[in-house]
Amino acid sequence: MEKQIMSSTPKKIKMEERKGRRVVLFPLPFQGHIRPMIQLGNLLHTRGFSITIVHTTFNSPDPSLYPHFTFHFLHEDILSQSQTDIIAFLKVLNTNCLQSFTDCLARLLSDDHESPISCFISDAGFTFTGEVARQLNLPRLVLRTGGVTSFFVFAAFPFLREKGYLPIQESRLEEQVAEFPHLKVKDLPVIKTCDPDYLFEHVSGMVNGAKSSAGVIFNTFQELEDAAIAALSQDFQVPIFPIGPFHKLLPNSPPTQPDQTAAITWLDKQAPSSVIYVSFGTLAALNEQDFVEIAWGLANSKQPFLWVVRPGLVNGSDWVDLLPKGLIGDLRERGLIVKWAPQLQVLAHPSVAVFWTHNGWNSTLESVCEGVPMICMPCFTDQKVNARYARDIWRVGLGFESGKLIEREEIERVIRRAMVGEEGKEIRKRVLEWKEKARDCLGANNGSSFESLERLVSHISSFDSLVFSSQ
Ligand code: UDX
């Protein structure tokens, strides 16, 4: 396998004409990671940097949508691997991309026809890239696509293991974590895997890789995660750049794809603030029983809904065929089920009242930015921390209290609380306050994210004297 990787040649798709400082971006090949990295690329591009994206052929973005970027693809041997165990897949990615990424970057550095490289920015999940930076003597920044609060909990994993909170024991799920007063043991950011040792190794690689980088970029804003940003800045000796929400810093949101307009056309016909938008992101998978309960809960709630059932959401099925025929009929009377929705436009739509979400970081932030309260149903890793904060600290969401299996009656109750109850009104009021803060942080007049971005641009520019003398 190694031989194959060694001999693989990165395929160059587009050479852009723009000259100037260049930044190479290396996203993890999952939608929840690719999207913020591309947004970061767009942000840096508006600040005069040329952008090169190095990506696996697996899950690659379509280069024709980004004609202002140059793309290089790594032909690594990962396509045959199952992606159902995310941790096992991360191990394969980190092992198999090491050589091909190093070769690709070395080639880019020696290419005289392109503008010189100031630094590269790797997803924090590519844990081997610190070593590559050292070998090639190139500054490396890290983009952590999750929030700072959850990252701070990841950084405490050794301590949480020492104290016996991790690995999680079923009997301690409801116990408060003394050192993290807002979290219970069940909120700790873990995930089921066949390789639990690698989970700890990966988290440690991610945290140490960030600590030894030239700086860590977060898609968040100071006001939202003030305490965690302060704590992390104290713990890490490298600069921290909270410059989000990325998508709001960009002049235009991406165009809606033709096959996604159905969701917006349907929303246009609904009453203001009446629709529950339901989406569990790009990786979470439900078992059949939970899927059926969710469908019954939505049908019985009698509220209009827009539900994303993406291929892979339900184990053992690619669409709604596991649901009883009569139920599908009921659902279609009241709602729309789609395979993918233009989420940014959906959340900004006046008909949307509530977002039932898995609390992936992008979804959480996007909901806050549009002032849409949440029904929180985290599945794994950072989503658990995000959901706890959405519910108890930012107080913009409601959650389920029952055990692991959510029942239709509880779903109905939570939907009613969110849509018509007093609590619903309160979380709506608060999320609108957060929406304002999310907007204010972008302002050129003392906006915290605006200033952080300025700091990041100067930081990257400061590498030039260091790097160009050695290129
Ligand atoms: C994964 C992890 O699950 C999450 O915890 C981590 O923070 C990032 O990576 P993911 O499941 O992809 O997240 O969810 P999320 O972070 O919310 O990102 C999903 C992105 O896809 C969002 O930007 C969302 O707007 C977009 N999306 C999703 C759509 O545009 N349409 C859809 O139908 C579904």
Structure characterization notes:
The structure is a single chain. The model is unreliable at 1-19 (pLDDT under 50). It contains 18 helices and 14 strands. The radius of gyration is 22 Å and the shape is globular. The strands form two sheets. It has an eight-stranded mixed beta sheet, with helices on both faces. Strands 11-10-9-12-13-14 form a six-stranded parallel beta sheet, sandwiched between helices. The protein is an alpha/beta fold. The chain starts with a helix and ends with a helix. The chain has helices spanning 2-7, 31-46, 86-109, 129-136, 148-155, 157-162, 196-211, 226-235, 246-249, 261-268, 288-301, 325-334, 343-348, 361-370, 382-393, 408-419, 422-440, 448-468, and strands at 11-12, 22-26, 50-56, 69-74, 117-123, 140-144, 216-218, 240-242, 275-279, 305-308, 335-338, 352-357, 374-376, 397-399. Strand 12 (352-357), helix 14 (361-370) and strand 13 form a beta-alpha-beta unit. Helices cover 45% and strands 13% of the residues. The protein has two domains: 15-249 and 442-468, Glycogen Phosphorylase B (Rossmann fold, 3-Layer(aba) Sandwich); 258-437, 3-Layer(aba) Sandwich (Rossmann fold), CATH 3.40.50. Helix 3 (86-109) packs parallel to helix 7 (196-211) and helix 11 packs across helix 12. Residues 30-33, 35, 145-146, 279, 281-284, 308, 340-344, 360-363, 366, 381-383 line the site of uridine-5'-diphosphate-xylopyranose.
